[in-house]
Design brief:
2 domains; binds nicotinamide-adenine-dinucleotide; Rossmann fold; alpha/beta; 26% strand; globular; 9 helices; 6-stranded parallel beta sheet
Amino acid sequence: MAKKKARAAGTTARASDGIGIALIGTKFMGRAHSTGWAGAGRFFDLPRRPRLLLAAGRDERETATFARRWGWEGATTDWRTILADDAVELVDVATPNNLHAEMSIAALEAGKHVACEKPLAATLDQARSMAIAAKAAARRGLRTYVWFNYRRCPAIAFARRIVREGRLGRLFHVRASYLQDWGRAGTPLLWRFDAKVAGSGAHGDLNAHIIDMARFVTGEEFSEVSGAIEKTFVAERDLPGGGGGAISGKGGARSSRRGRSTVDDCVLFLARFSGGAVGTFEATRLATGNQNRNQIEVNGEKGSLRFDFERMNELLWWDDTLPSALRGWSRIMCTNAGDHPYAAAYWPPAHLIGYEHGFVSECADIALDLAGREPVAPIPDFADAYETQRVLEAAIRSARERRPVAIREVR
Ligand SMILES: NC(=O)c1ccc[n+]([C@@H]2O[C@H](COP(=O)([O-])OP(=O)(O)OC[C@H]3O[C@@H](n4cnc5c(N)ncnc54)[C@H](O)[C@@H]3O)[C@@H](O)[C@H]2O)c1
């Protein structure tokens, strides 16, 4: 591709001391990532601060408005132009799942680092091609990152530390569920209900997160998945007429036509881990009354821990080594600078952080990693996210073939 500068709504991106970022996708995650890139250099001491160069979307006016509002120096409606911009060092992919492979691989081939949204891809084949491209690009010094942002909740990064310190002892159970309820019959047929675009429904969207969290917190890999159930309750939905909220489509226009949902509304499965623990996993968009209930509990021989994103600043902890009279669930507020991961970057104790801080912390960790420094918590790269994708695939095979599936079968 010709090396020409991307022209952007009146601005031409220039090289600078900052890390030049270009974002593709300007809606829900586009907003979250913009908040992250803008905040990282303010909250964290970074060797090089991210610089918000270019935002790429589809609609010219909308993308230009987004860029102005969220602090991007320029805007484009042709994402490929950013590949030719020498000032862009990292391409941030925040588009629907079926576009991740094409955009990420093109960016790597153009010599850019890539931070891609989860799930890594819509299909295992796409995910594998991304892992292969990332491996080749790593030989040219290029880094890849995947936005499994829940790793960067202080409580989750702290849970991992507790497990690594051996405070739970041998692990017996992982109990993870990610429950949402926006996918009821009134929600229109957004891209999230189209298997060609999304790959799957609640499964790739939500199970991907809790699979990654389970791997991250326990430090163990999945060895087998069994007993999976994949179910679609809402077979047909109104076609969206445009506009509306990014996830639920609420407030958008409706067409009088209807179309088929081709994805699951929920997927449940059982799992075995490399260290001998067993686990249960459940993802659904129809858990009425649970809006973003991303939960994980780990039970070990010496203690247990419990996390619920709807109370994201807290980690519940049971220390079974205490005298029995003193045992009980402790509610740890994970906001103490010096004690809890990321807490030093934000506010005084119990001055709570929210959803967006996970993205700020992820952007800071990426900037540290690019400078050769240790991120606060490890960031999954494409090879790591491919392992999560293999577990997703194993669960679907288990559901459709009604049998246990060893992870080593899924390549
Ligand atoms: N990490 C998380 O917690 C989290 C949360 C929500 C979504 N996601 C993931 O983020 C990704 C995006 O989801 P979203 O909720 O932001 O979706 P969205 O529908 O809100 O936004 C998608 C964006 O992609 C843009 N887009 C689509 N095709 C494009 C193209 N060819 N060129 C340029 N832009 C294009 C759209 O215009 C839109 O701006 C998905 O992979 C999703 O799974 C992750």
